[in-house]
Fold:
Amino acid sequence: MEELSDAGSIPACSILPNGFFEDSLSILFFCVKLLSMEKIVETISYEKVKEYDYIRDFFGDKKVCMFDIETTGLSADYSFTYIIGINIFDGETWQIIQLFNDDGTSEPEMIRVFQDLIKDYDVLVEFNGDRFDIPYIRKRMGHINRKYSISLVDNFDKVVPFDLMKCVKPHKFALGLPNIKQKTIEKYFGINRLDMYNGGQLIDVYLDYLSTNSEKNRKLVLRHNRDDMEGMILLGGILSLEMLTRGRFEVNNISVKDKNGVLYLCIDANLERKVLHDIFTSAFGCSLEVKDSSVKLQIPIYVGAMTYYFGNKKNDGFTEREGYFAYTLPGYIGEAALYKEKAGSKDGYIMLEDSFLSNTEMVHQYVTHMIDQIMLYKGV
Structure:
């Protein structure tokens, strides 16, 4: 336990409700206890997490921290925060920092320390934090500020939030996931950890700790959050999906294959970093296979005549051409001309001619779009 007595600390006595204490001795005791937030720091062996650590590759030179909270309930109106877990990269390895409300009264100081820390970072990575953790902390800050007439500074707007869950949710069908819970995703990526309790079960364990000062209960709640924080570092592997769908690969071969009388455009590419789980999925006659750093994409080819429309209507003008055309899923906004079977169609075709095939940028735009749309497919 460490006493936080720096000049920036919250004056404990200023947050007391009127009539809370009857004598100055009680007030003095409360002031000391409020500032007794516990801070635990652990350095994680980089060898243990380097296979999963995509954070620095994905965000480049940006300063990134992660966070997760433990609360005594889901409603910020009727519960409070008792642990804030933070991951930071110190230039050589990851550190887990836990701010622990070890006396039940240190929530304001715990939130102040957290908010003071994040202002120095560019990106704040969380898991479902956009929906829960950030709104919860903000609401608790509002309650604390109003009830105790203090001013906790909100620095969430000074850092860009990045929710790892949102990187998985759109691809749930393509990845074959039954749900997008953190433990489900961890298992998908081969992360296996033993957790005897969930967050809900540990609420009573924490409250019992406040009453009994049980060291066993203290270790249980801290261990759960600590493992969640290490799990978030490992969940950085989720960013391999973002790197795939955002086009962080190099196309190295394009060919045409005949399968039972149907022609396919076959594209091979190499990812910047490998995916942590093989991907085999398909949509609209296209197939996508990703294994380690290898990407194989197959797209059906139409042979015949197609029309390029100058507008959304036939009356706007058009031109017809004959040749080989690769199917294109809706939403394509690349530079290649989009041919269609009829005006107004959402999907279309790209003509496989030298002006396209020899243009590295146009091919990359097209392949990125197709992979992104296949990964977004939710089934019929």
In short: The chain has 13 helices and 13 strands. Residues 1-34 have pLDDT under 50 and may be disordered.
